[in-house]
């Protein structure tokens, strides 16, 4: 019993640390800190935060403002509840306030570095978990830089959990999002930085060479409005992935046109993976688009344009729900995400 309780405590502290590294909102960090302390942010939890949640994550990059905000919120909460704030936390916070001007100079890029750790349960003990994949990200902290493409969206987390949950769909396939594309140049620049943070090589030009290499991706400018048949001819993906790309009615017809071009290809190539009776098996190229329906009209506009282009779009988000790899991310609402499986209508 005591062993199980200690394991549970260790799990709560692990979740707290991973949430901090993932740059979760301060309110979520405080909720996890309370949970780890059995209802209040105890001296033990404060000490853990000081020792494990420092500014420097993702290979030495600074998130100073974020850390200071969290320490400030913790001190306020503990003082308000008349509990003990440990001296080391006061001292650390005081140091931070003294060097605030310097920190704000260091943080002039408005970027925050996040580490998203995907956890999978171990088979022998469901209460303990293993980190299966870590993704390191540079994100815009204010959304001014790089339009919307430099932020972390729930749809991309959902799509990541889907890929990790069903590796059989993706292994040995050519995925269009391993050819990473965007129509915004600062998003492309940030995308390249993120590939480097994760030690993934970027292949720029020769597509044939890319196909032969496993640990390489291509980062490519692709505007849905401008993309032509000839631009996409070289790509014959088995799978097209998209996260949070259905949100602007003006772009919808262009996005649907690009999807149609990518999904329409030599019919012979699609036969390879046919297996009967499995919803996930495909006879031809498939697009998986994760999306949050923020505006029903925009979503209906996408559904109509897809149907007009003879594409079938089915929400498989609940029938093929991915496993929960992010139990510590309290800000991530997976129930808000739909996962559309898009194929050519037969
Ligand atoms: C909400 S963000 C999602 C980014 C990324 N897929 C993710 O999940 O984090 C939408 C992305 O679509 C891109 N986008 C919007 N309109 C586009 C267009 N017409 N052509 C190409 N990309 C476009 C934006 O630049 C932005 O990066």
TrEMBL record:
Alphabetized InterPro entries for the sequence: Methyltransf_16 (IPR019410), SAM-dependent_MTases_sf (IPR029063)
Organism ancestry: Eukaryota, Viridiplantae, Streptophyta, Embryophyta, Tracheophyta
Protein name: FAM86 N-terminal domain-containing protein
PANTHER family assigned: HEPATOCELLULAR CARCINOMA-ASSOCIATED ANTIGEN, PROTEIN-LYSINE N-METHYLTRANSFERASE EEF2KMT
Gene3D superfamilies, per database record: Vaccinia Virus protein VP39 (3.40.50.150)
């Amino acid at each position: 019993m005591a062993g199980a309780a200690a394991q549970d405590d260790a799990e709560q502290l692990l979740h707290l640390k991973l949430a901090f590294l993932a740059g979760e909102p301060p309110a979520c960090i405080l909720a996890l800190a309370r949970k780890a302390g059995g209802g209040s942010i105890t001296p033990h939890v404060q000490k853990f935060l000081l020792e494990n949640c420092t500014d420097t994550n993702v290979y030495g990059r600074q998130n100073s403002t974020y850390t200071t905000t969290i320490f400030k919120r913790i001190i306020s909460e503990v003082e308000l509840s008349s509990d003990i704030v440990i001296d080391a936390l006061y001292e650390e916070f005081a140091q931070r306030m003294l060097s605030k001007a310097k920190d704000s100079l260091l943080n002039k890029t408005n970027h925050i570095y996040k580490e998203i750790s995907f956890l999978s349960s171990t088979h022998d003990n469901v209460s303990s978990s293993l980190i299966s994949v870590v993704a390191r990200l540079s994100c815009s902290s204010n959304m001014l830089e790089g339009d919307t493409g430099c932020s972390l969206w729930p749809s991309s987390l959902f799509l990541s959990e889907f890929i990790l949950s069903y590796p059989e769909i993706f292994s040995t396939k050519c995925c269009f999002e391993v050819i990473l594309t965007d129509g915004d140049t600062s998003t492309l620049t940030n995308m390249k930085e993120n590939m480097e943070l994760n030690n993934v090589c970027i292949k720029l030009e020769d597509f044939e060479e890319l196909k032969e290499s496993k640990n390489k991706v291509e980062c490519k400018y692709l505007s849905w409005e401008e993309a032509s048949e000839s631009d996409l001819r070289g790509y014959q993906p088995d799978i097209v992935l998209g996260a949070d790309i259905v949100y602007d009615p003006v772009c919808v017809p262009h996005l649907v046109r690009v999807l149609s071009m990518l999904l329409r290809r030599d019919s012979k190539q699609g036969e390879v993976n046919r297996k009967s009776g499995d919803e996930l098996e495909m006879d031809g190229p498939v697009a998986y688009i994760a999306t949050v329906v923020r505006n029903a009209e925009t979503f209906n506009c996408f559904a109509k344009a897809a149907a007009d282009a003879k594409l079938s779009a089915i929400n498989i988000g609940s029938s093929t729900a991915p496993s929960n790899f992010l139990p510590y991310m309290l800000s991530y609402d997976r129930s808000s995400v739909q996962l559309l499986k898009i194929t050519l209508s037969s």
